[in-house]
Specification:
about 140 residues; globular; three-stranded antiparallel β-sheet; 5 strands; single chain
Length: about 140
């Protein structure tokens, strides 16, 4: 009888060892420690999606560049471009993640969009969601 074996990162076996920090930085000491790779991967994705190209000096190709759309017209054509940008950038920078679905909801009155990103971690089979709100405030 065959069954699938779930891969576990060696970092997850030591529950008292931190593997990164959470976003946003709300802890009294500025950083909250993350103790498993699934949560750290989620925070890495959030960081990647909110970072623009050329924002990191030593890694100019890192980042999705979603802030470039802040001054664009909110319409379906731009939503398709956003979905394509997210899917291609995540695929090239996070090979262990498979994009399941990307939903974009707009609020024209606030000039904002909410991006809900569904993904699966390939080596473990775990699924998760990232939600990002982008708005142009003055």
């Amino acid at each position: 009888m065959a069954y699938g074996i779930k891969n576990i990162s060696p970092l997850d076996l030591r529950t008292s060892t931190g593997v990164g920090v959470s976003i946003p930085f709300e802890s009294p000491s500025a950083f909250s420690t993350v103790y498993n790779t699934k949560d750290q991967l989620k925070y890495n994705l959030i960081n990647f999606l909110l970072t623009d190209k050329y924002e990191r000096p030593q890694n100019p190709n890192f980042g999705c560049g979603l802030r470039l759309i802040l001054f664009e017209q909110i319409n379906q054509e731009n939503f398709d471009q956003i979905k394509l940008r997210i899917a291609s950038q995540v695929k090239s920078n996070f090979p262990n993640i498979e994009v399941q679905n990307i939903d974009i909801l707009s609020n024209i009155d606030d000039n904002s969009i909410n991006i809900k990103f569904f993904y699966t971690i390939l080596n473990t089979g775990d699924s998760d969601t990232v939600t990002i709100a982008i708005q142009n405030t003055q």
